[in-house]
User: Which sequence fits this backbone?
């Protein structure tokens, strides 16, 4: 039992976990952009005698590089938000079906498939893959979690029928509807 728990922890750690955003890159981009704009403004409207054409190119390079940095950081940050959200659902709340994810995110299953595939392709989600036929999430982590789920057959105290109960889940007897609780004995 301990071995499986260790395996689960190991798999969870082998994901990127909670990833930090690139705020520094974004702020630097804003700085570079602002500097470029300032330089350009000085070149065009400043009272300088030395307003060379080269100065404007110089300014435009800064503006372009600044904007590119902001774009890259923003795109990355949006992906990080998405990754952290899926990490929370899949790895921390153990949602392994598209239906569960769609309910939690209030998105369509098609959107979920697209987003998960993007994250896998960009190297964020490493230990899972989609089974679009079964509409589930698969992989070593999922298998590991499923192996740890305890099941047992208990006898209903109302009608005496045998029902299979999953750990930490309460279900009703198939025959009489009485509540059945998994007990750790
Ligand atoms: Zn019963």
Assistant:
């Amino acid at each position: 039992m301990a071995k499986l728990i260790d395996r689960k922890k190991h798999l969870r750690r082998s994901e990127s976990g909670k990833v930090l955003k690139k705020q520094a890159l974004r702020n630097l981009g804003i700085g570079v952009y602002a500097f470029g704009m300032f330089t350009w403004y000085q070149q065009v409207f400043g009272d300088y005698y030395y307003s060379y054409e080269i100065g404007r190119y110089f300014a435009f390079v800064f503006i372009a590089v600044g904007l590119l940095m902001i774009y890259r950081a923003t795109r990355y940050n949006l992906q990080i938000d998405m990754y952290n959200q899926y990490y929370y659902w899949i790895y921390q709340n153990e949602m392994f079906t598209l239906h569960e994810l769609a309910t939690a995110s209030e998105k369509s299953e098609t959107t979920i498939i697209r987003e998960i595939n993007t994250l896998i392709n960009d190297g964020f989600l490493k230990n899972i893959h989609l089974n679009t036929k079964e509409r589930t999430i698969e992989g070593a982590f999922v298998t590991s979690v499923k192996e740890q789920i305890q099941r047992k057959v208990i006898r209903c105290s109302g009608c005496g029928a045998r029902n299979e109960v999953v750990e930490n889940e309460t279900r009703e007897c198939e025959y009489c509807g009485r509540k059945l609780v998994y007990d750790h004995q």
Observations:
- The first strand starts at residue 129 and ends at 131.
- Residues 151-181 form one domain.
- The beta strands are 129-131, 136-138, 151-155, 162-166, 170-172, 179-181.
- Residues 156, 158-159, 161, 173, 175-176, 178 surround zinc ion (CB under 6 Å).
